[in-house]
Amino acid sequence: MAINFNRITIVGLGLIGGSWGLALKRSGFRGIRAGCDRPEVLSQALAMGAVDEAGPDVPQAVREADLVVLAAPVGAILDLLPQLKGSVSPLTLVTDVGSTKRLICQRARELFGGAPLFLGGHPLAGKELSGIQHADGALFQETRYALTPATPDHLADERVKAFCALLESLGAHPFVCDASAHDRAVAYLSHLPQLLSTGLSSLIAEQSAEDFLPLELSASGFRDVTRLAESSYTVWRDICLTNIENIQSALESLIEKLETLRVHLSDRDLEREFKQAVKLREKLRRLK
Fold first, then answer.
1. CATH label, 182-286, candidates 1.10.10.10, 3.40.50.2300, 1.10.1040.10, 1.10.3660.10
2. Distance between CA atoms of residues 15 and 129, nearest Å
């Protein structure tokens, strides 16, 4: 029997949570979109039309929900999970948007077992700026949405099938993977770029402070590479803490690669690195 989500509660109405609410509205969702956050955020979300109903109390907000979306930083999601136990129906599907998955999925499995059903989620979409004021109903259009079920059997659950259909209605493309494999991959593909952008920006800030590196000479390349440096430390602190081994490994690999570039600045081996990089960019352009 097909499942319909008639009431969706979004806990956390920042960039991703607010975008979830606006994307549901944009897709023509006819159920109730309930929101849970601080009173000042709820007022803004209601004014923007990101939610239909709002309240600050988590257990009350999720009590009648068919689907609960935990749209908060990783540390906050870990704190929210125990608050759901005993408040949501055993028939509810609970998901999250955390950028790391292994620890969240492990904690949910320990707390819930299989009732309610928990499905790890990570929208591969976002902006360097956070907050409800930056929410966008088209944020998930043509993006991958990683899903990390506790077991492969969960993919046959009607609630999970309904959630995948819901994601597709928002314009996203579900991508199923193991939680541990997810965390290793995003350490290289998401967390490493963030730290590279942050580290480069911090380095240039130190150099320019010594008054011999004029920022007026920076062009679009530098601005593109440092765009992620505007991201919030509060969000990335939790990501680093919950994926530290994978991120350390990725950083070590990058350091080795930078050392290779340094050694080969004056010989043809540098050309090989450029050609390999161009091939990767071509492959990325072909991905849909």
1. 1.10.3660.10
2. 8
pLDDT digits (tens, 9 = 90+) for 20-34: 999 999 999 999 999
Locus of tokens 């499942």: 3
Q: Residue 245, Cα to own-chain centre: how many angstroms?
A: 19
User: Over the stretch 108-155, which tens digit does the pLDDT of each residue have?
Assistant: 999 999 899 999 999 999 777 789 999 999 999 999 999 999 999 999
pTM of the predicted model as reported, rounded to 2 decimal places: 0.91
| CATH code for the structural domain at 7-177 | 3.40.50.720
Residue by residue, what is the 3-state secondary structure of the chain? Answer: CCCCCCEEEEECCCHHHHHHHHHHHHHCCCCEEEEECCHHHHHHHHHHCCCCEEECCHHHHHCCCCEEEECCCHHHHHHHHHHHCCCCCCCCEEEECCCCCHHHHHHHHHHHCCCCEEEEEEECCCCCCCCHHHCCCCCCCCCEEEEEECCHHHHHCHHHHHHHHHHHHCCCEEEECCHHHHHHHHHHHHHHHHHHHHHHHHHHHHHHHCCCCCHHHCCHHHHHHCHHHHCCHHHHHHHHHHCHHHHHHHHHHHHHHHHHHHHCCCCCHHHHHHHHHHHHHHHHHHCC
Domain residue ranges in the chain? 7-177, 182-286
- Hey, do 7-177 and 182-286 end up sharing a CATH topology, with the first three levels equal? no
Burial 146-170 (b: 16+ CB within 10 A, else e): bbbbbeeebeebebbebbbebbeeb
